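FORM 7B - TANDEM STRUCTURE REPORT

SECTION 1: FIRST PROTEIN
SEQUENCE AND C-ALPHA CELLS:
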Amino acid sequence: QLLEAKASLSLAQTQHALQLQQAQAQINNMVPKKQFEQLQSTLREEQCKTQQLQESLHQQAEQTCRQLVRTQEEHEHLLQAAVEQAEGLEYSLRSAEAVLAERAAQLRDAQAQLSRNKLLIKDLCGENRGFAMALQAAELKQKTMKEKNQLLEEQALALKQLIGKITPASLS
C-alpha cells in the first residue's frame, strides 16, 4: 500500500507539475488587464473610425453617383446638340453642294456660250477684214470717180465756155 501510495503520489506530483506548467503557459500567454482594456479601447476607437470612414465612403459614393448622373445628362444634352448641329451642317452642305452644282452648270453654259462667241467674233473679224478691203476698194473707186467727175466737170465747163463762145458767133 505504501508503494502504491508512493506511485500515486508520484503520479499526482507529475500531473500537478504538468498542470502547473500548463497554467504557467496560459499565464504567459495572457495579456495584463490594463493592457487588455487599452486594447479594447483602441479597438472601439478603430471600430468607430472604421464606421465613420464607411459612412463617409457611402456619402462620397452617393455624391459621386449623383454627379455621374448629372454628367451623363449633360453629355446626353451635349450629344443631342452635337447631333442637331451635325444635321444642320449636313443640310447646309447639301444646300451648298446643290448651289455649287447649279453654279457649275451655269459656268459650263457660260463657257460654251463664250466658245460660241469666240468663234462668232473670229468669223466677224474675217468678215470685217473683207468689209475693210471692200471699203478700201470702194474708197479707191470713189476717189477715182471723183477725179473722173472733176475731169468731166472741167470738160463740161470748158464745153460751156466753148458753146458760150460759139453760140454768139453762130447767131451773128
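SECTION 2: SECOND PROTEIN
SEQUENCE AND C-ALPHA CELLS:
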Amino acid sequence: SPRRFCLHPGLSEDLVGTHPPGAHSLVAVSVGYFLEDFVDMLCNQKLHQSWELLFHHSVVIVCFGIAVLLHQYVGFALVALLVEINSIFLHLRQILLMANLVHTTCYRLNSIVNLGTYVVFRIATLAWMTRWLFLNRENVPLATYAVGTVGMAIMTPMNIILFYRLLRSDFFK
C-alpha cells in the first residue's frame, strides 16, 4: 500500500531485498487470491470470456510466487499491488453494469474515477516498474530479469488495450 512506502522509504531504493514487516504475507495472500480467482474463472466462465484474465492471473501468480518462494522482490511485488487499487473501480463498474445502472450519475462518476485511477495506478505504476527493471538489470539475475521483462511485456499492452476499451465503452459510444 502507499502507506508502506511512506513508512519505509528505503523500499523505493531496494525492491529486491528490502520489505516491511507483513509485506511477504501480503504478497503470499495475494498469490492465494489470484489462484482462487483463476480456479473460479476456469470452473464458472467460458474460456473465450475469461482467457485474458486467466493469462493475466498466470503471469501474476508466477511473478508473485517467485517473490514469495525466494523472499526477494517482495518490494517489487508490493509496487505491483498498487495496480489493484484501480480494481475497486473496475469491479464497481461491472456491478453497475450488471445492475443495469449505466445511465446513472453513479456510473458516470465511477467511469471518471476509474479512468483516473487506471492512469495513475495501472499505467504509471507499470511504466515505473518497467523503468526500474531496466535501470537495475545488472543487479537482477538473468532468469529473474527475464521473468520480470516478459511479465511487463505482457501486462503493459494488456492494460493499454483494456484502457482503450474502457475509454471507448464509457466515453465514445
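SECTION 3: OBSERVATIONS ON SECOND PROTEIN
Helices lie at 2-7, 23-44, 47-70, 74-81, 84-98, 105-135, 142-171.
The chain has a mean pLDDT of 89.

SECTION 4: SIGNATURE
Preparer initials: ____
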